[in-house]
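Hey, sorry to bother you again with one of my protein questions. I've been puzzling over a protein and I'd love to understand its fold better. Take your time with it, there's no hurry, and the full record follows here:
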Amino acid sequence: MSEAVTRTASISPGLLASLDPLLREWLPRQRWFAGKGRPVVGFSLVAATELLPPGGTLGLYHLLVQAHQPALAPHQGTAPGDCYQLLIGAREALPPRLAPALIGHPTEGPLAGRTVYEALHDPRPAEVLLEALRSQARIGGLRFERDTGQEIGTGLVPRLITAEQSNSSVVFGDTFILKLLRRVVPGVNPDLELPLALAHEGCARVPAPTGWIRAELGGGEPYVLGVLQPFLQGAADGWELALRELAKGEDFGAEARELGRATAEVHTALARALPTATLGHAQLTPLVDGMRSRLEAAARAVPALRPFEPGLRTAFDALAERSAAGHTWTAQRIHGDLHLGQCLRSPAGDWSLIDFEGEPSKPLAERRMAQPVVRDIAGMLRSFDYAAHSAEPPAPAWAAACRAAYCAGYAEVSGEDPRADAVLLRAHETDKAVYEVVYEARHRPDWLPVPLSAVHRLAAPDPS
């Protein structure tokens, strides 16, 4: 694909029916599948594109499928669920190296007699995606676009990152990383929108997008499917780095301070690039009501939280009182899901922020709303707490030192220490801890003591 490619892509109408029984078993086992705990009872085809010309030894199919599952309320029957992006490969037989990627063997339809598999495990399909981005291909409804000011070289060997995550990522020769979103919705995705805005502002704390993949279907809003960015070779994941330093008994304060500075630089650039808003009483009321509602629902779901509910509610009441007294706050675009695992430190010691998708479980419109920056800060403070409680024995003093250093670093750049507005910070920390209690109770019960320890602190009359 050395030149721009534009071609139509026809798909046999029986393709999804051929894959349906296999996907019902395979899809719920994937880390990024959001509907766990309920069976998949069928699929609707949103879009299908054949990425390689038909007739070859390797078939490559790009699918957007909507999974149908029983509704959460039994009386509501079956409802269309989330839309997922799938990259399906088809071969006569799989070589041993691709055995972990097996989806199954269709018994009918256009793929009968072939072996289908998760194609991202296979270098050739990954190369097809990079070639399409390089040539700005248009294949069916898929649009492969890029920043023409950045070069995409040839001969970059792909490798799939196998660590569990909510999306899928492929690294190309230690030069680029392609993140493919798995659960997709139409509209402007912040994982592309915000890095592009930051690149325009010259913010070096976030890798500038090199290319992106969209799907244009009919007259509706396009789907953002993937983003290609420079790969930060040798960079250390913030979570893993913190755990290593903690295990060695090393101080992490200097790193936390630099991370606070990096966060403030990103927030400052986002405030320049995109509109901000003022939150007064009318705007704060629904925000506080949402916090209260989440607390009530969490207390019903997790009995261990109930003794702390009255104390936790005071955090939200205090914020409501400040709002009613006429206090206002500034809201802007933020990261939306900030924690140590969303940060990378280069070998030179520079911190970068990644993964601006926000919390995938929340509606896209909510993820794109202007919010107080303290929401990001609260997420990072909770992340230090999680790291400290991963040690044996737990190290609350280590977490407290990191939290203080992070806020101090943030203040050095922004001019505003997040701790100065203790009421706003406590409310957002409390809201985050309540969310964590529910998550851990459902998915990782052994981790429940971590957010409960924070709940105990935040519910106290003097939560400092």
User: Anything to note?
Assistant: The chain has a mean pLDDT of 93. The first strand starts at residue 6 and ends at 7. The longest helix spans residues 422-443.
